[in-house]
Amino acid sequence: MREKSHQERMLREVVALIAEKKGENTVILDMREFSIPTDFFVITSADNPKQVKAIADNILEKLAGSLLRSEGWDSKNWIVLDYGDLIVHIFQRDLRRFYDLEGLWGDVPVYLEPQVESASVSG
């Protein structure tokens, strides 16, 4: 796990980059209590494939972090960007409702985008 200040900076940066491209209903899931190889999921919604791609491109171009892998570029319905301690899920709105990651991981703390600092400082 990286130091908290690095995680805080990455979370703030990702949320800001999503907002630049009008991502909606952005949330942060705190996954640190689970035995999975990441600390946070950032989940956001977009209106269409073009916006999904625009959000993903903006993050790839501007985020100060090393992308480990990504998925979903062909369909642009759900793009996943894996930065190790942080995984970004960019969904088209209907697909986000269908997969309901927030419901699937219902026991984890969920932070709304204005509360980025709380997500990284708690725990």
Question: What's the SSE blueprint?
Answer:
Elements: H1 4-20, E1 24-30, E2 40-46, H2 49-62, E3 69-71, E4 78-82, E5 86-92, H3 93-99, H4 101-104, E6 110-112, H5 116-121
Parallel strand pairs: 2-5
Antiparallel strand pairs: 1-2, 1-6, 3-4, 4-5
Helix pairs in contact: 1-2
Number of helices: 5
Q: What portion of residues is helical?
A: 25-40%
Which structural class best describes the helix and strand composition? alpha+beta
Q: How many domains is the backbone divided into?
A: 1
How would you describe the shape? globular
Distance between the termini: 13 Å
CATH class designation: Alpha Beta
> How is the biggest beta sheet arranged?
6 strands, mixed
Number of strands: 6
List the uncertain runs.
114-123
| Secondary-structure element pattern, one letter each | HEEHEEEHHEH
Key descriptive features of the protein:
123 residues; alpha+beta; Beta Polymerase, domain 2; six-stranded mixed sheet; 39% helix; 26% strand; globular; disordered C terminus
Structure description:
With 123 residues, the protein is an alpha+beta fold. It has one domain: Beta Polymerase, domain 2, CATH 3.30.460. 39% of the residues lie in helices and 26% in strands. It contains five helices and six strands; from the N terminus they run αββαβββααβα. Strands 3-4-5-2-1-6 form a six-stranded mixed sheet. A hairpin with a 3-residue loop joins strand 4 and strand 5. The longest helix is centred in the N-terminal third of the chain and has 17 residues, at 4-20. Mean pLDDT is 86; it is low at 114-123.
